[in-house]
Amino acid sequence: MKYTLEDKMTSLRAVSIAVLLYIFGYSLKISVLLNGILETRIPNTVVRFVTSGVMGAALSTALLIVSVIEIKKYTSYIIAIMDAIMLLLVFNVFNSNGKSELFTLVFISLFTAFIGFNLISVFVVKYQLIKSGKEQSISQLEQIESKQVLELSKIEQEIAEKKQTTCEHCLQEYGTRQALNAHKGRCIKNPKNL
Ligand SMILES: [Zn+2]
After folding, report:
1. CA torsion angle for 171, 177, 182, 183 (degrees, to 10)?
2. How far apart are CA 64 and CA 55, in angstroms?
3. What is the mean pLDDT of residues 77-95?
C-alpha cells in the first residue's frame, strides 16, 4: 500500500508529533511561570530551574494523559481555559503596554489554548478510530478462523464416516456397513479368508 503525502500529513503519527510538540510547549510555559513564582522562594538558580522544569514536565504529561483518557467532556474545557489563563500570566498581561499589546497577548493566549484543545480532541478521535479498526479486523480474522475450524471438523467427520464403510484389508469402499461386512467375509486380502 502506497501512502500519499496527504495520508502522512493526517496520519495518527503526524497528529501524535503535533500533540507532543504542544505538550513540550505547555511544559515550557508552566516551567517559565513557576520559575518566576519561585524566584524569591528558591534563590539558587540551578535548583529553581530544575524544580520548575521537572514540575512543568510532570504537569504537562499529566495534562496529556488526562485529556486523552478523560471520560467527562468538561475536563478538556477546563484544561483549555486554564491553558489560556496560564499563557496570559506568562505574558504578564496585566502589565502590558497599551491596548494594542494587551489585545495581541489575549488573542495569542486564547488562540493557542483553542488550537491545543482541538489538537488533543483530534488525537483522541483519530486514536479511537484506528483502535476500533484494528479490533474489527481482529474479529474478522477470528471469524475466518472459526469457519476454517468448522470445515476441518466436517472433513474429519467425512473421513471417519468413510472409514466405517471401507474395507481395512483391500481399501475398497462400500455404500453401507452391511455391504462392507458381507464383503469382509469373502475379501481375498482378509487374513481370515486365506
Ligand atoms: Zn476387502
Report:
1. -10
2. 14
3. 86
Please, which pLDDT band fits residue 1 given cuts at 50, 70 and 90?
low
What DSSP assignment string belongs to 126-181? HHHHHHHHHHHHHHHHHHHHHHHHHHHHHHHHHHHHHHHTB-TTT--B-SSHHHHH
Q: What is the pTM of this model?
A: 0.62
For residue 179, report the distance from its CA to the centre of ligand 1, in Å.
11
The arithmetic mean of pLDDT across residues 90-113, rounded, is 89
| Ligand 1 center–CA 169 separation, angstroms | 5
pLDDT in tens, 129-151: 888 889 999 999 999 999 999 99
Return the C-alpha cell found at 66: 488526562
Q: Which three cell numbers stand for residue 129?
A: 478510530
The three cell numbers locating residue 182: 458381507
